[in-house]
Amino acid sequence: MAKRSSLFLRIVEGKNLPAKDLTGSSDPYCIVRIDNETIIRTATIWKTLSPFWGEEYNVHLPSTFHSISFYVMDEDAISRDDVIGKVAIAKDILTANPKGVDSWMCLSEIDPDEEVQGEIHLRIEVCGESSMRKLRCHVFEARDLARKDLNGASDPFVRVQYNGKTQESSVVKKSCYPRWNEVFEFVLDDTGAENTLHVEVWDWDLVSKNDFLGKVAFNINKLLTIQQKEGWFLLLPDKARRRETEENLGSLRLQLRLRDESVLPSSYYQPLMELLLQSVKTTNNGEKGHLLALIDEVTTAENRQEVATNLVKLFLGQGLAKEFLDFVMNLELDRTTEPNTLFRNNSLASKSMECFLKVAGMQYLHNILGPTISRVFEERKYVELDPNKVEFREAGCSGLHRCHTEADIIQQSAQCLQSYLTELIEAIVNSVEQCPSLIRATFKQLFRSVEERFPQDPYRNIKYIAVTSFLCLRFFSPAIMSPKLFYLRPKHADARTSRTLLLLAKAIQSIGNMDTNLAREKEVWMAPLQPLILQGVTLFKDFIVKLIDFEEEEELESRKRVTLQTTSTIKEGYLLMHRAKERGILTSSHFKKHYFCLNYEALCHSKMSNAKTSACIPLSKIRAIEKVDEKCFGSAYVMQIISTDGRGQFEIMYLQCKNVNELNQWLSSLRKHCVSNEQMLNSYHPGVFKGEKWSCCHQKEKAAPGCDKTHFGVTLQEWNDPLNPDLESHLIYRQLLSARDLLMEKYLEYKVKNNVTGPGSTDEGMSHREHIVYVCSWLRAGQSILRGTVLHCHMWVP
């Protein structure tokens, strides 16, 4: 049984933040940490005390995590970023709210005594004869301690306290992974007056006072029954030192939902898989889809996106994505009476197609939109067509030979937008051959289905709009407006660039609607783009005709078993690389720029993106993927890849990323595709080997065992995640289970409606009744399928 925890988090907005800049404002951003590991950095929202982020993330993490923390920071271009405040949420709070947490939370001041992290390895035992028993504390080592000094490390020592007496260890200089191996003894108090042993870790400072690094407390009465206790213990904050503050630091609105899953082997989910596959396959009497129809009926608006994602991935893995989408599209077509509203709501069909495009077409999207989006970001021109929003200062009208009138600014803006829009339209209409065959086959079927449902001449454009409503309105246009959310850019756009992108997205949306009159009536100031939009409508119609013009062999090819590997590339981009050598001092100057490409077999790199690959590391040879201490190279964004060569010897490659988001995306991608490797390391060195010792723990042997445990639990959910059919089946089962009461109502409804009393009922009634009974019976069988898990339930007997 595989255990898995997933955390959905949405960083919505902040309000009433304190001003940190001389201008009376701040430039806030958020950092998210799972325990001690930074996993997310939001975009910076400039010059505001009430920022809106609206960033969503799904994080897979180990069930052993303790808390999640949100740090609100103020970005400074010159000095170090200021800490505004934090919100810390314990795992227990998330577990106690299975439906999730959605509320405003007040920011608290950062208390140094609470900013602790790491673990300490101890053995506590009671020894000696009953007349003179002693309490012995063996302090071995610690790992991942907080960094309190400017050099990016600490000078830790241990303070052991019992029965009013205190003993201290030696100080280990410049290490967050100290090794002491010292023993402390105390005479055991038989009176029971003192029953607690305190072990504290401190950072020694020569000038200022020592910094608290964490503590562990042991109950001696409990220890007497077991005589000895040894292991790694989590260092805890000293709440007694906590300072209360009345200063208002503002608040943060967060949405979080934690789920723990127990995923069983494939055989347990086979009945559900067979039911789902039967739903998209036509039977002898022409029936299909009862289970999917039921799922569509009982799925609520709150979980429709999740259900759609699970279904798309499951049918992709079975090579039936086209058939699944065809079925849910026809469900919506059958209940649509007004063609102009087709696929405009957030139905299961719309959500499923939206998810399918992101999974199967993301690389296609990047190839088509990427160049123009990058150009907009790089040129960063001031663009505005709405006279009510023109800002002369932003347009740069104060200098010589600059435009001074509103009309001049709008004219220049129109020329700039026309250039961008022309480039976008040409890229899209010329991309027929680049579009994945599976997407083309799916749109071909959609085009035909809509044409059959609305053959009347007044609705001749509906079949085109059905395709563009997904391709433009739910794929191209959102990606243009928010490129970060589609992995086109590492950061959100600033206000100026964002306005340009919004106007371009509006234009593409108008083309997708194929109703230019409506656009002119709503926003008259968009008139300078109308000729291009009109031309775009014609070009897009031709594009769709070519897109669905499929040869039979190509369509059959697209029906083959398809997984998320719609492209061989998982992730690619430029990184700074350095390979560890036997000799020499490591510095950031040794890093060389290389282009890296991660596929499903290896991590390859070359000097240029279009150059021949110079070297590859097979994924099967990777033994660990971990971060490197900031002090090693003067950067917090360095990771190491530990692999074996042909002789079985360890090699280390160091890669430097641009920011924490890029670092975690590479870590996440590599970890997810190496998680099943054999002989993965349990420990590693977060430092580097230089000066004949490891910088982290000061061990002098290069082959010495690692001083910190490896991390494989925390990964980010992305569009190119590997398929997990067992998990998808499990999540669909859970959705059905949560809707079991509604399913029973549907069964009773059909029973009454069709007067179902026994085997002699009508074929239609019997068919639906039998199918609902089958679904309910299978859910009832879930008691044995998931016996002993959190999903154990009591079902009804139809």
TrEMBL record:
Source organism superkingdom: Eukaryota
GO BP terms: intracellular signal transduction
GO molecular function: GTPase activator activity; zinc ion binding
Segments crossing the lipid bilayer: none
InterPro entries, per the entry: C2_dom, C2_domain_sf, PH-like_dom_sf, PH_domain, Ras_GTPase, RasGAP_CS, RasGAP_dom, Rho_GTPase_activation_prot
Every Ras-GAP domain range: 303-513
A Pfam match: PH
Limits of the PH domain: 568-675
All residue ranges annotated as the C2 domain in the record: 1-105, 116-233
This protein's UniProt keywords: GTPase activation, Metal-binding, Repeat, Zinc, Zinc-finger
Name the UniProt record assigns to this protein: Ras GTPase-activating protein 4
Taxonomic placement: Eukaryota, Metazoa, Chordata, Craniata, Vertebrata
